[in-house]
Amino acid sequence: MALASKLAQLQSKATQASQFVAKNGPAYYKQLLEQNKQYIQDPPTIEKCNLLSKQLFYTRLASIPGRCETLSKEVDYVKHMWKNRKELKIEDAGIATLFGLECFAWFCGGEIIGRGFTFTGYHV
């Protein structure tokens, strides 16, 4: 019986959300486009979209050496901190722990998403 009431409650909330989006969606869409009109290409042709896509891809590709250099610096910093771990402050250890937990949480989230939002890996 509890499952049926939860389902009815969920349907009611979904209906409310759908009504809210139907009522406020177009105004939000227009406002969003107006606020970001400097980023909109005119005319929005397929050729222009393809050009922008290629520009984004190759710009990101060109940024890889800089990202690798930054990563190398970060790894060197971590190595230095590890060598001098006796001098490590509790704040630094706390920040490192929180960073590790955040990475683990992102990993777990990615795993769940990769399995189709299931926790066991089994889905119907």
What share of residues are in beta strands? under 5%
Radius of gyration: 24 Å
Average predicted confidence as pLDDT: 88
Number of helices: 4
What is the terminal separation in angstroms?
A: 23 Å
Low-confidence parts: none
Name the overall outline. Answer: flat
Q: SSE string, helix = H, strand = E?
A: HHHH
Number of strands: 0
Helix percentage range: over 70%
Largest sheet: none
Q: Which structural class matches the secondary elements?
A: mainly alpha
Q: In words, what does this structure look like?
A:
GO terms for molecular function: proton transmembrane transporter activity. Its main location: mitochondrion. With 124 residues, the protein is mostly helical. The chain has a domain at 1-40. It is 77% helix and 0% strand. The protein has four helices and no strands. It starts with a helix and ends in a 10-residue tail after the last helix.
Describe the secondary structure blueprint for this structure.
Blueprint: H1 2-35, H2 46-62, H3 64-83, H4 90-114
Pfam families: ATP-synt_G (PF04718)
InterPro entries: ATP_synth_F0_gsu_mt (IPR006808)
Main location: mitochondrion
Q: Can you give keywords for this protein?
A:
124 residues, mainly alpha, 0% strand
In short:
With 124 residues, this protein is mostly helical.
